[in-house]
Every structure is written in C-alpha cells, then in structure tokens.
C-alpha cells in the first residue's frame, strides 16, 4: 500500500461501529427526507387532484417544520438537522402550493359544470321521458331489453376482470415501493461511504463538557412545540381517511419514507448513536419525540391503507 493510503487506513481503524452506524443512519435519514414529498407530488399530478390529502395535515406539519428550524438554530444542533429543516420548509411550501392549485382549479370546474347542468336540466328531462314512454309495446322493445340485460352482464364480467387486474397491480405496487425503500437505503449508505472516503464526513467528537452544556429555554420550548405539531399533524389525515373510508389520492410511499426517515433519525442518526449521555439525550428529547412519536401514527395510516385499499386502487405510487 502506498504511503498516501496510510491516513485513510488509520481513519478506518479508528472508526468505531458506533460512529459508523451514526453516519450511515444519518445519511439514510437525509436521503429519506429529500425524497419524501416526491411520491405525493407525483400522485397529485397523476390524479389531477389533491382531494386525498388533508390541508390541515400539511398546514400543521409546516408550522412544525418552522418551529423545528428555529429551535435547531437556537440550540445549535448538528448542521444536518438545520440543513434538513431549511430544505423541508421549502418542500412543504411546494406541496401546499400544488394542493391549493388543484383545489382551486377543480372547485372552479365543478361550479362551472353545476351551472351548465342547472341550465340544461329542464330541457333534457322532457325528451327523455317521451322516448321512454314511446318504447312501450312497440315491436323490438323486448329485444332491446334483452340486449340491455346482456350488456349489463358483459359490464359485470368486465368489472370482475378489472378488480382482479387492480389487485394484481396493487401487489406489484407494493413490490415497487419496497424496492424504492431499498434504493433509498442504498443511496444513503453509498452517500455516507463516499463522504467518509473523501473526508467530507468525520465522526463528531463529544467534548467532556458536552453533557453539561446548557440549552436556551426558548430553544427547548420551540423544540417541544415542533414535536407537538408533528404529533398532531397526522390526526386530521387519519380522521379524513376514516370518515371517507378511503385512502385514495394518498401515496403509500410517502408515508413509508416518512417512517424510514423518522426511524433512522430517532434511533440513531443524531441522538441515540451519536451519544448516550443523559444530558445530551434530554437536550434532544423534543426532536426524538417528534420523530418516534409520528411512527405510531404512520403505522395507523398503514392500517388504513390495508383496510380501505380496495376502495382506492390508485392510492399507491
């Protein structure tokens, strides 16, 4: 081995499994959050509608991201947390803007169609009634009824075939989502490996006095406020799904990436695998609550996808 490779070897030998896990988890979490909103943006575009997602969910989540950013800056958390908070605020605005656009557009079309329908209802009813009456007793009317019955049977057969195709398609979508998750994990891991090899990423040393560092009360309050917002944001979406008995218009991959991002962040990236010191843990407790707490709500939404999936074949991206 060349002399130039000696520092890299030394770094490799001094990199503990604890530090490596912290780096990998952090990189996977970052990759999850970067791609998080893309599936829902694509789903809204494909549907031409944002009726499936609750605006209250997005609004409360956006408030949580703003308070998270402010708290992270005030508390002086690691740069990854701060950069991610900035990115997510912009991403939230993009998704909210798209939803408002589709809601306004579809509402305007609905009002226009309703006005047109009201104007033509009276004139449309009379001829239809006349045509129905004129068929009674005429030659060939029984044949027409028989033909209509055959048409209905044919439609029922097609519906049955369509439901089978939809079930098979749903199975394929689950596989695609699983492969997407594996891809995000691979991208995050590869990103950490490249950053480590090039010296961009280095283990963050913990000073002896790190555990006694005082955090401003305002930063703690903002941290807990963001945690409350994150925990409360999904409640309107869960209620909406339950009320409508459908998850149509929602991207399952969106919530899968959210679960992955929260799990890797909360379980290792910036907190547990970075330090197990009590004071460090308590300092980051609000962010831990916000991450791990929402995993329970994500699991609830997964159950709803399972329960109402048959009513929303296009819900999976």
From TrEMBL:
Q: Name one GO cellular component term.
A: lytic vacuole membrane
Tell me the domain of life: Eukaryota
Polar residues bias: start-end ranges: 115-124
What are the GO MF terms of this UniProt record? basic amino acid transmembrane transporter activity
Q: Which Gene3D superfamilies match?
A: 1.20.1280.290
Where does it live in the cell? Answer: Membrane
Q: Per the record, what are the reactions this protein catalyses?
A: L-histidine(out) + L-arginine(in) = L-histidine(in) + L-arginine(out)
Q: State the UniProt keywords alphabetically.
A: Membrane, Transmembrane, Transmembrane helix
Topology versus the membrane, per the UniProt entry?
A: Multi-pass membrane protein
Q: Where is this region: Disordered?
A: 115-154
Q: Name one GO biological process term.
A: vacuolar transmembrane transport
Q: Does the keyword Transmembrane apply?
A: yes
State which residue ranges cross the membrane.
20-42, 54-77, 83-104, 178-195, 215-233, 253-273
Q: What is the similarity comment for this entry?
A: Belongs to the laat-1 family.
Q: What is this protein called?
A: Vacuolar membrane PQ loop repeat protein
